[in-house]
Design goal:
The structure holds two protein chains of two kinds. By secondary structure, chain A is of the alpha+beta class. Chain A contains twelve helices and six strands. In chain A, helix 1 runs antiparallel to helix 9 and helix 10 packs parallel to helix 11. The longest helix of chain A has 83 residues. Chain A is rod-shaped and about 145 Å long. Chain A starts with a helix and ends in an 8-residue tail after the last strand. In chain B, strands 2, 3, 4, 7, 8, 9, 10, 11, 12 and 13 form a ten-stranded mixed β-sheet that branches. In chain B, strands 5-6 form a two-stranded antiparallel ribbon. In chain B, helix 20 packs antiparallel against helix 21. Chain B is elongated, with a radius of gyration of 27 Å. The chains are: A alpha+beta, B alpha/beta.
């Protein structure tokens, strides 16, 4: 049996149990009151108590009818949708207090039944502790010893004392047993209720955790795939450049570029190579190629030059590339000219670059080349 | 969670509830209305004062007839034939079972018990709210008896003050003339001393001054108020109380150990005996059997006063009370007024009952005086003015719950002091301690 079903079973059991208790207390009290009335000890009894006992028939009738009414309200509460749930809870409370009052506070366990029942209504609410707190407060207030200080009531024990010795003890014992059992039932119910709540919470927690894990995975995946795409793009570019240089040596690549560019711009581009054939590293070739490409672009685009001359010289391990045009140049070398990029590339190789825009563009780049890779 | 089948509460349901409520209200009000037409009365045959009584029904019948005439359509319902000895239990039983009459007589000894259990309705609202009702028309002591802790739970119907019976014949033989109304303990002691003697010369005293004189008579006539109104505390250690006990000791010494009883008074051998007005009115030829054999003239006077007191006495009162559970409050109050406030009915107390009317006007009035004189003066006996004066000065009897037990405790304690010659102050201190601890419980 699962917690929820067990809980409902305990609640139904509590209801029947409370009915038996209310029945027991009201019948024993009523019968005893009538017996005292007929026993010839009525005056003696009145001298002992400080208030008249309730009218027996009335007590029986009111306690049982309010109990039945309470059960009916609880049934309605469980089975019908209420627009205003508060109304029915208040009515249930009034019935509960009425039963207690009819029994002259000789039994207050019915408050626990009331609390157990309304706990359901507060499930998932932010005030879910309210019934427990209110319930225990009322349970303490509607206690015979507390109430007998405020209002005049007659205890069940006083009635029981009418019987001789053992009978009185047994009657009181049964009543106390009923009250205690009811408290135990309530505790069991509360534990089941809390367990049910915790089960639900656990389930929600684990679902939540799984969801977060999935989310994290998804994020990782997204990050990874982005990096992957970047890498792939970079590789593609590298391969492209590499391919350009790989296929031929640097000079033929430069020549090809020059002819392509002069064809496109109608500018005259002259390469004067006195450095001879160079055996350079891939990175060095790439840098030289890019510097030449970048400078020609600048001269044509920004300098409006129609002639660009390129000198390539070598002195020991320093390759010097000078690119000079007859264009307008530029008073300021702007970052957009790709100079920065060239500088960075050269820095990596330990080279230098000088740019001058006063009389057309003049770029002088010195690139130290690694020994051993120098002449073939 | 499983889904529960729920329905919206419909208008039909609300209408059903409303209809049921209307039907219940109608049934209740119909029952209530019919119930309103009858009012029940609880009373006992015989006198409340333990004297033979032949005419109880005459007064009850007259009052009921008058009430029914004043309230057309209303019937007074009662169970007749309940003896006084069974009456307390009868009412208590009915109260417990919830079927007590709307209005019932309350014997003085039951009053605190019934009022203490809230069985009796508080009548202050009626007393103050009824323009046709004036409580100052009652003897204070009669009306006060129905008051507990400031609330009026009963309205007086018939009172009997305590007085002193006098064997006039004996006094005459001893050469003692009229005793003044304001006589003192000294006068009292002197007479007792004078009449206590051995008349037949057998060496044993056979004529005495007093019997049945208790601490209560001594206390009330010496200004001792031993209890507060609620019976919550007891104060026996006053100068006056010590004087009173000393006086009891002194007057008891006169009999030199002989035990004098009411029987001796009946035989004509005792000069004084405290008794109730009802005794006097019933036995005016004091007990008939006695009258037959002993020819002594009975008179009554006030109780003698101590140095610090008055010729006062306590007064016992039969009350009429309203059941706190009655649903006929208005009619119940009217019925109480018929018995306790109607001059005609109250006058009948002097015709059919043995006590005194609680209404000053009735007891004072000429007609009453005449009727009493007619009855009383056969023996040339008592003066109506004496009753009026005693009642005017009377104190209500204690009416707190434990008074019976406390009385017994004090009785025993005083007996002890008198018999063992204990110092009055020390003796009283011991009694007071005992009574206080008893009252505290």
């Amino acid at each position: 049996m699962d917690t929820s079903a067990l809980k409902n079973f305990v609640l139904s059991f509590m209801k029947s149990f409370n009915f038996i208790t209310v029945l027991y207390i009201s019948i024993i009290s009523a019968v005893t009151i009538i017996k005292i009335g007929n026993s010839g000890g009525a005056v003696m009894f009145l001298k002992k108590v400080n208030t008249l006992p309730p009218v027996p028939e009335k007590m029986l009738l009111t306690s049982l009818s309010f109990f039945v009414f309470l059960m009916a309200l609880m049934y309605m509460h469980d089975n019908y949708e209420m627009k205003r749930q508060w109304y029915i809870i208040v009515m249930e409370f009034i019935c509960t207090v009425s039963v207690i009052a009819a029994l002259q506070v000789n039994y207050n366990g019915i408050i626990l039944l009331f609390v157990a029942h309304i706990m359901k209504s507060f499930e998932g609410s932010s005030k879910k502790l309210l019934p427990l707190i209110l319930g225990s407060t009322f349970f303490l207030i509607f206690d015979f010893n507390v109430c007998s200080n405020i209002i005049k009531i007659t205890s069940f024990e006083t009635y029981a004392e009418y019987y001789i010795g053992t009978v009185a003890a047994v009657l009181i014992l049964i009543k106390n047993l009923f009250a205690t059992l009811n408290i135990i039932l309530f505790i069991v119910y509360t534990i089941l209720h809390l367990r049910e709540q915790m089960d639900e919470k656990d389930e929600i927690n684990s679902l939540n955790e799984r969801l977060q894990a999935a989310n994290r995975e998804l994020e990782n995946y997204a990050a990874e795939s982005e990096k992957l795409a970047q890498t792939r793009e970079r590789n593609r570019l590298a391969r492209e450049i590499h391919d350009t240089l790989e296929q031929r040596d640097l000079l033929s690549a430069v020549h090809k570029m020059i002819s392509q560019m002069s064809a496109a711009s109608k500018a005259k581009i002259i390469l004067d190579n006195s450095a001879g054939r160079l055996a350079l590293g891939e990175d060095e070739e790439e840098v030289i190629y890019r510097i030449i490409q970048e400078s020609i672009t600048n001269s044509i685009r920004h300098g409006k030059a129609d002639t660009v001359r390129i000198w390539m010289t070598r002195e020991y391990n320093i390759v010097t590339i000078t690119i000079k045009d007859n264009g307008v140049g530029a008073s300021n070398i702007e970052p957009g000219f790709g100079i920065t990029h060239m500088k960075e590339r050269l820095d990596m190789l330990g080279g230098k670059i000088q740019v001058d825009g006063s009389d057309g563009f003049c770029v002088v780049a010195e690139i130290p080349i690694r020994w051993g890779t120098g002449n073939d | 969670m499983t889904l529960r089948k729920k329905k919206i509460i419909g208008k039909r349901f609300a209408a059903g509830v409303f209809l049921a409520a209307v039907l219940v209200t109608a049934a209740v009000s119909l029952h209530y209305f019919q119930h309103k037409r009858t009012i029940s009365l609880g009373f006992f045959t015989e006198s409340a004062w333990d004297v033979p009584d032949a005419y109880t029904y005459r007064l009850i019948d007259d009052a009921v007839e008058k009430f029914e005439a004043d309230h057309p359509g209303v019937k007074v319902k009662f169970v007749s034939g309940i003896q006084k000895d069974d009456y307390s239990e009868y009412i208590a039983s009915a109260l417990i079972k919830g079927n007590a009459p709307d209005v019932f007589f309350v014997l003085p000894e039951d009053f605190s018990t019934f009022a203490g259990t809230d069985a009796l309705m508080k009548l202050d609202g009626y007393i103050d709210g009824d323009a046709n009702y004036d409580k100052s028309r009652y003897y204070m002591a009669s009306f006060e008896f129905g008051n507990i802790s400031g609330s009026q739970y009963g309205i007086p119907f018939e009172s009997v003050p305590q007085m002193m019976f006098v064997n006039k014949t004996l006094l005459k033989n001893e050469g003692i003339k009229e005793i003044p109304e304001d006589w003192t303990w000294e006068d009292f002691y002197e007479i007792c001393d004078r009449v206590t003697k051995d008349t037949d010369g057998n060496g044993i005293e056979d004529q005495f001054g007093i019997c049945d004189y208790t601490w209560e008579h001594a206390f009330i006539t010496n200004g001792v108020d031993a209890f507060d109104a609620n019976g919550a505390s007891c104060n026996l250690l006053s100068e006056n109380a010590v004087e009173a006990v000393d006086f009891i000791k002194k007057i008891n010494m006169l009999t030199k150990g002989s035990i004098v009883t009411a029987d001796d008074f009946d035989k004509g051998n005792v000069a004084f005996m405290p008794a109730l007005l009802s005794d006097y009115r019933t036995y005016k030829p004091y007990p008939w059997n006695i009258k037959k054999y002993t020819n002594f003239e009975l008179d009554c006077i006030t109780l003698p006063r101590g140095e610090n007191g008055d010729n006062k006495s306590t007064m016992s009162t039969l009350l009429l009370a309203m059941n706190s559970r009655t649903d006929n409050e208005g009619l119940a109050w009217e019925l109480i007024k018929t018995f306790c406030y109607d001059i005609e009915i109250q006058s009948e107390i002097y015709t059919y009952k043995e006590g005194a009317s609680v209404l000053k006007t009735v007891t004072d009035s000429m007609t009453t005086m005449l009727s009493i004189n007619q009855v009383l003066s056969e023996e040339g006996g008592m003066d109506i003015n004496l009753i009026t004066s005693i009642m005017d000065h009377a104190e209500p009897d204690y009416n707190f719950k434990d008074i019976t037990s406390v009385r017994e405790m004090i009785d025993a304690g005083i007996d002890d002091i008198v018999n063992n010659g204990t110092d009055s102050k020390i003796g009283l201190q011991m009694i007071e301690k005992r009574v206080r601890s008893f009252l505290k419980e």
